[in-house]
Amino acid sequence: MTFKQFYLPFFLLVISLGAQARSGLPDFTDLIESTSPAVVKINTVEHVKARGRMQLPPGRQDVPDIFRHLFEPPGGMPERNVQSMGSGFIVSADGYILTNNHVVDGADEIQVRLSDRREYSATVVGSDERSDLALLKVDATGLPTLKFAKDDDLKVGQWVLAIGSPFGLDFSASAGIVSAIGRSIPSERNENYVPFIQTDVAINPGNSGGPLFNLDGEVVGINSQIYTRSGGSIGLSFAIPVSVAREVVSQLKEKGRVDRGWLGVVIQEVDRDLAASFGLSKPMGALVAQMDPRGPAAKSGIQVGDVIIKFDGMTISTSGDLPHAVGGTPPGETVPVTVIREGKKTNIPVTVGTLGGDAAAASKPVDSIDGGRLGLVVEPVDEQTMKEWQLAGGVVVTKVLPNEPGAKAGLRPGDIIVQLGFNDVASVQEFSKIVAQLPPNNLLPIRFYRHGRALFRTISIAE
């Protein structure tokens, strides 16, 4: 057999496989051509009062701030214009445009530019800081629009495409895949109402507010955030899913604001040790660490120490799932909630409320208990702290002995213990009795306040 006869079939096979691989990649040209007319570039201007240098008299730099305006130049300080940019897209032909709240927040002037170079002045219909969405309106009709995808169709690994104006480069397209869904990213206010879509699509400053498409040209998300240390894309971008956007647009259009469901609880993650102490087969759910006594959860019978594993039929796998489920529930609606309480499953109907818009633990050396089986020195909580935090009881830790159960559980001086095992701690004397009766070699939950925030940990006595 000649060299040509032996290797030619092999080369033909490689070429054929390469052609098949290339043919399997998506072609975005038609998608971009059909959707880009409804994508807009947003330019904003904010009028900011410039900080001029005040002409203070020699030797009088100590003039109080309240009088310094007397030494400003005539006419006051000059204004300067701060410009920024972002992206958005048209959601209805009569001029409604969706973008990020942070794109237009504080803007005095908003200009919207279409891909065909038409420009309009826009006004803010309403904005929602919690979801970082804003609805704009321009005076126009017959505009091209985009269509929202179905809520639950997105899957990890699916191709997606973004169109926007990164760094001011008009109507740029970038593509990638969905890396994860349901990402919980707390905001600066430590709120978490958006189950973000994570992608590896190249998103940069200026893309904010622009659409994220599936291969059918439907909007699956609104590009909102990037994770970066350099200021540019490193392959971690996050988009607000249409399940959130659809409801926000509807409420902003109807009443200019967004009302969300509210339970009135503070929750924390359930780790392996906490799961064992609460009788769970694996870490799951959202542990209720603290609650508003006037909130919907308290009124419905949910208790501190309950682990919420289902809310209105939705499985709560992690604590971050609960705010997403509650926030999307219409206020006033009664929904079934499943909790694990002292190892047993309980179903509780809860009427959801409406979401509305650090005291340290002081102690006095009275009736202290030294060391004990937990290696903790505890004292009564002062009346002021009891009143401020609406505590019915508890003991404050004043000393933690090294290498003892309390130290291993992560307790610190200043922590206020309010529950040990499944028993409420009302006083120092009661704490002493509970500790004396704790079974050895068992993981038990311990609930305490630290800097005003309730936490659960696990503690075990080895004997």
Write a structural description.
Among the domains are: 159-255, Trypsin-like serine proteases (Thrombin, subunit H); 261-354, Roll (Pdz3 Domain); 376-459, Pdz3 Domain. With 463 residues, it is of the alpha+beta class. The chain is elongated and about 80 Å long. 18% of the residues lie in helices and 35% in strands. It has a 6-stranded antiparallel β-barrel. Strands 7-8-9-12-11-10 form a 6-stranded antiparallel barrel.
CA-to-CA gap between the ends?
81 Å
- CATH fold-level assignment of the domain at 159-255: Thrombin, subunit H
Structural class: alpha+beta
Rg, nearest Å: 29 Å
Q: Main β-sheet, in a few words?
A: 6 strands, antiparallel, barrel
E-strand count: 26
CATH architecture classification of the domain at 159-255 = Beta Barrel
Q: Could you tell me the strand content as a percent range?
A: 25-35%
Name the quaternary structure.
single chain
Give me the CATH superfamily of the domain at 159-255: Trypsin-like serine proteases
Shape: elongated
Q: For this structure, what is the CATH class of the domain at 159-255?
A: Mainly Beta
